[in-house]
Amino acid sequence: MSASGSPPTKPATRVVDAGNIEFGDGLEILLSTVFQAAEPGQTIDVTTASRATALELPGWARSTGHHAERDWKEHNGNGQRFVVRLRRGDVVPVLGPDLPPPSDPMPLRLGSQFHTTDLISAAPGGIPSSAQPNHGLVPLGAIPETGGPDYAWRLNTHDDLWAEELTDLTERASSSQWDATTDIPWNEAIGLPEEVERAVAQVMTFIASNEYVALYVPAKFLPQVNPAFVDVLMWLASHINDEARHVEVFTKRALVGGQRGYALAATQLSLHSLLQEDDFSSASLLLNVLGEGTFIDLLGFVARNAPDAATAACARLAHRDEQRHVHFGISHVRRSQKLDPDSTRQLIAAVEARAARLATLTGLSPVLLESLTVLASGSVSAAALRQGAGAVKELTKLMETNRIRRLRAAGFDKETSHYLSELHTPNLM
Ligand SMILES: [Fe+2]
Ligand SMILES: [Fe+2]
């Protein structure tokens, strides 16, 4: 009896016209859709023009957890129809709660644009502040079916990974993609004086080496991130995509003129120490703020002083991407320190530990210094070299000033910013 005292009403019998379709022809899909929408116990009359299909229907019902009640023939204007009455069983096709009722459509901008920021803020359920380490690969807003495998994610706290402008940066990354095959005037790189081309090849090889670590660091963290934090995953994926293109474009520029450069051992040592950092925020300080920050100045220098338009374009386009990566790092580190003042000590310790591992590096490699000077000189005449050497000296000063400025923006006090800047690897990244 229902609460009001009247017997519960039985849901009315539904009628499904299967027309001429048969099993193997789409009939299973039609029946599955109808039975999923029906209530357990509800009867459904399936009409078909095919005697064979009518004979198969009870077997289909049994195999899918429903019941066959009875069958009969009907005649209408189109001739003979077979009717089989089935009753929906208790089986559920998915081991999960019922799907919630539909909500309003998601917000669009300018009539047709679905912004990632709106996806993240308006999706039902949203992004949790923390997630279970065994969380499945469940898209935002989806209802997880029980019985999936157990995962063991390592990074399960959103605040440990997030930055204020995260989705905005991801959207900017999507809309500023470029093509290292067609967006660089590669022909402009051909025909430089041999000494200049050799210097450019060396600088490009150095930059390409460093781009590898910028690729590997976010790629190392991505598979540790709980899939509930799709905003973080999308950001890291865009970062990785950018860096893969940087490896591509600088490798292409190193080789296009026919010369080769050295992958310097000092660079390898520096990058190896960066890959050893296992804490996300510390890695963000070392890579995004200090390393990529310093590289922004290097890329700006190459874009301004390149002896050819191809090299300048490579540096300019990569510079644009690096601004996003540095922006993320500054914002993330600043927020980490605000949320947990103890993290400042940990961040400083990470820079100190890396500096200790790099104690044997005393300055920028002379091979690189020389190549940067020739690149900026555009020739090996005495006058040009004097001007190039001056530009490199200014670059070193600019890197230091800007590094301190970025550290201040990331939330470190003046004294600590100077200290951390001094500890930063002489390899620049
Ligand atoms: Fe890069
Ligand atoms: Fe980068």
Features:
Ribonucleotide Reductase, subunit A, 429 residues, binds fe (ii) ion, 13 helices, alpha+beta, four-stranded mixed sheet, 4 strands, Translation Initiation Factor IF3
Give a written overview of the molecule:
The chain is an alpha+beta fold and 429 residues long. It folds into two domains: 14-87, 2-Layer Sandwich (Translation Initiation Factor IF3); 158-423, Ribonucleotide Reductase, subunit A, CATH 1.10.620.20. The protein has 13 helices and four strands. The protein has helices spanning 27-37, 51-63, 116-122, 166-175, 194-221, 230-256, 265-275, 280-305, 309-339, 342-357, 366-377, 382-409, 414-423; strands at residues 14-17, 43-48, 67-76, 79-87. A four-stranded mixed beta sheet has the order 1-2-4-3, covered by helices on one side. Strand 3 and strand 4 form a beta hairpin. The radius of gyration is 32 Å and the shape is elongated. The termini are far apart. One fe (ii) ion binds at residues 211, 214, 243, 246, 318, 322.
CATH architecture title of the largest domain: Orthogonal Bundle
- The count of DSSP E runs of length 2 or more, i.e. the number of strands, is 4
- The helix fraction, in percent, is 40-55%
Q: How many individual helices?
A: 13
Rg, Å, rounded: 32 Å
Query: Which sheet architecture does the biggest sheet show?
Result: 4 strands, mixed
Question: Ions, cofactors, ligands: which are bound?
Answer: fe (ii) ion
SS class? alpha+beta
Round the mean pLDDT to the nearest integer and report it.
94
Overall spatial form: elongated
Write the CATH homologous superfamily of the largest domain: Ribonucleotide Reductase, subunit A
CATH-assigned fold name of the largest domain: Ribonucleotide Reductase, subunit A
Report how far the terminal alpha carbons are from each other: 74 Å
- CATH class term of the largest domain: Mainly Alpha
